[in-house]
Write a structure and sequence with these properties.
Length: 190
């Protein structure tokens, strides 16, 4: 696969510009004995770098055939000497070659909601496969605890571990949390 991003710039028009020098270097890196085979390999590499429509493939082949004829002519003029070619046609090599960027398909349908924004029923549906494949619930609890620590929520991780180690602790946490809410409502005046 070809790494065009590193050497080209993509505009908003769905076209990516690369230099002819870049294409020349890619061509020279092909393991083919003659220029025609190298150019054909480069063309195949360009065509397989993205998922093009038939119309885009036709346009790319047309542009590449023009590049091909120019480079063959210039290559023969310098008697196939790379150093002479690079120095004589330096300004031509700095010119651009336009590659069409395959349009990304638009997603149809309703946009996906983030998990934390989903309702309780949706969360249960989304986690059903995970819950059915993992038989040991301590495994899930431990993974959640580790993720809480990684995200900086050490207190929540501690509460989760306490609940996991002592089931009666969960009831105590729930009562304490409910009482805290009542005291806050009395202070605020609800």
């Amino acid at each position: 696969m070809m790494e065009i991003e590193a050497s080209g710039s993509q505009g908003t028009s769905g076209v990516r510009n690369v230099t002819r020098k870049y294409l020349f270097d890619r061509m020279q890196s092909q393991n083919s004995p003659n220029l025609d085979e190298k150019l054909n390999s480069l063309q195949q590499e360009l065509l397989s770098s993205e998922k093009y429509s038939d119309e885009q493939i036709s346009a790319l082949k047309h542009n590449f055939s023009h590049f091909k004829s120019q480079i063959k002519k210039k290559w023969l003029q310098v008697h196939k000497k790379e150093d002479v070619f690079l120095s004589k046609y330096k300004s031509w090599l700095e010119g651009g070659f336009e590659l069409t960027v395959a349009a990304k398909p638009k997603r149809c349908g309703r946009p996906q909601k983030h998990f934390s924004d989903s309702g309780e029923r949706s969360k249960r549906r989304k986690t059903a496969e995970l819950r059915s494949t993992v038989k040991d619930k301590d495994f899930i609890m431990h993974a959640a605890s580790v993720e809480l620590i990684k995200s900086g929520k050490r207190d929540a991780s501690k509460v989760l571990k306490d609940i996991q180690n002592s089931p009666t602790r969960a009831t105590k946490y729930k009562k304490a949390f409910a009482n805290t809410g009542k005291k806050e409502r009395l202070i605020i005046g609800y």
